[in-house]
Backbone:
């Protein structure tokens, strides 16, 4: 059995550092800052979409996104652990799943370098079977490619897989991959928003996931 976790909003509360990086890149290019709640709505589809959504209406062009990207990456690479923390109970959940012989993996739309750095920083003792973020020439979630890749690497099947995430993107990813999905309610989206996608299960705390599995 394997449990695939989303990263932002599921394992880690990352929005403060993401918003700071977005605003640093906006300021560097002469655009107004966005609020934390706005940035929370913008995340889920990778850095490019975050920057596009953060730009003012009328300025949301691919060219402007590319102008913002270097400043965002420079700031975020240097500050991605400033305020980011695991959600309460997550470390215990991961350790308990490992103790039961259940494989773990991460599937994120955050770029690969940052995904690896965060997992190494916060979960160095957890033996993940795979840690996969957004990579060049690889389809991002909600495409099911990352789930299929993780299943191949871990020698697991759709029938032995659980997917855990906090966003509409995660619900769609799991549905596209035909695996069971558990929606967590402590992340960046409300239970009402997630209910539209009819997840198989809900978890209000990390301990709920352990009981479900």
Residues:
């Amino acid at each position: 059995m394997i449990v695939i976790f989303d990263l932002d909003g599921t394992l880690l509360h990352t929005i403060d550092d993401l918003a700071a990086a977005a605003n640093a890149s906006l300021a560097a290019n002469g655009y107004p800052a966005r609020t934390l709640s706005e940035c929370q709505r913008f995340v889920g589809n990778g850095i490019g979409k975050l920057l596009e959504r953060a730009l003012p209406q009328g300025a949301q062009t691919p060219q402007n996104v590319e102008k913002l990207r270097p400043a965002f990456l420079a700031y975020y690479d240097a500050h991605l652990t400033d305020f980011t923390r695991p959600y309460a109970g997550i470390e215990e959940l991961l350790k308990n799943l490992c103790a039961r012989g259940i494989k773990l993996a991460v599937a994120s739309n955050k770029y690969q370098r940052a995904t690896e750095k965060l997992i190494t920083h916060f979960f160095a003792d957890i033996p993940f079977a795979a840690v996969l973020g957004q990579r060049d020439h690889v389809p991002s979630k909600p495409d099911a490619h990352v789930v299929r890749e993780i299943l191949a690497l871990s020698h697991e099947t759709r029938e032995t897989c659980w997917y855990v995430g906090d966003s509409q993107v995660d619900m769609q990813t799991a549905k596209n991959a035909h695996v069971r999905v558990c929606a967590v309610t402590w992340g960046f989206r409300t239970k009402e928003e997630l209910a539209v996608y009819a997840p198989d299960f809900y978890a209000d705390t990390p301990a709920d996931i352990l009981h479900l599995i």
The CA atoms of residues 77 and 195 lie 34 Å apart. The chain has a mean pLDDT of 96. The beta strands are 2-5, 12-13, 85-86, 103-111, 130-134, 161-165, 180-184, 201-203. The chain has two domains: 2-13+85-212, 15-79.
